[in-house]
Amino acid sequence: MKTSSFIQRARRAGTTFLIAGAGLAVTAAAWAQAPAWPARPVTVIVPTAAGGAPDIAARLLADRLSTELGQRFIIDNRPGANQIIGLSNAARAPKDGYTFVFASSSGLSMNRLTMANLPYDPIKDLVPVINVGVSPMLIAVNPDLPIKSIAELIAYAKQKPGAVNFGTIGQRNIPHVTGELLEATAQIDLVHVPYPTSQIAATDAIAGRTQVVIDGIPPLIGMVNDGRLRAIAVASAARLPGLEQIPTVAESLPGFEINGFFAVMAPAGVPQNIIDLVNQKLQVILKEPAIIAKLRQGGTYPVGGTSQDLRNYIDKDYAILERAVKAGKLEKQ
Questions:
Q1: Hey, is 163 helix, strand or coil?
Q2: Residue 230, beta-bridge partner list
Q3: Residue 302's pLDDT is what?
Q4: What span, in angstroms and rounded, lies between the C-alpha atoms of 146 and 144?
Q5: Is 266 exposed, middle or buried (0-12, 13-18, 19+ CB in 10 A)?
Q6: Is the pLDDT of residue 283 over 90?
């Protein structure tokens, strides 16, 4: 009886092994037949309007990814509400690797600090792919002023408390909080003047209606080159390639750094192998001389790195902007 029972159990176990083996074979066959990613066009949401610096950079990289991966990477502009519309759409997109978003520090850090009840969580709803590059702030002054450096600006402002105005495009953005952080770090009294466009902000500085203008490099560099404005500093950690003649704020105020940045993000839940593949392709693309040159023309200095490097950078960016927002006493709206 014992022998017979043992044989019966062995036969049943053998049947189970056969069934399990058949299941593995079916799974392997299904996996082998599954189409490789990408099997169809990929959407890249750009949460800003067509024609701006983020859109130009995103289209540049999307074209190269299309070539590298054999499927079209299609730009889908979803501007509005300081990137909230586009980022919310990206956060709700299917987790299948066919939607990415070209985000910036405004959507990933500033909104968390200055807006209440965001309809997306940049940390929980989106995952990092790659840091495309930083977009440093440029600080310029009216050339008639006796100011050629941040140290001289600080001295001038201390002599004339409350009489030095800095203009930026709009409020509650990177240029604005750059001025607020400068004011707090240097312990000077500056007055913020928001403008509807970069052009008007720069024009008023040239006319002497304001003393300082803070913006990204592209809106100001032409006026610096022709002498209508004097560049006194960039807010990046180190001097910039091609603009080595412009010192950093940190050379007068050690440790000072604040930049915009652009990043590729994906909806949380996208398979890691897809994230890794896009990251690897973009790391190579961002080192191409032609890509570097075109990005720099738009004021973006390529960074690259791993997806974890981007996560670390977002955390660092948030901490810097948090200090700036507190310095400006900007409450959430």
A1: coil
A2: 141
A3: 97
A4: 7
A5: buried
A6: yes
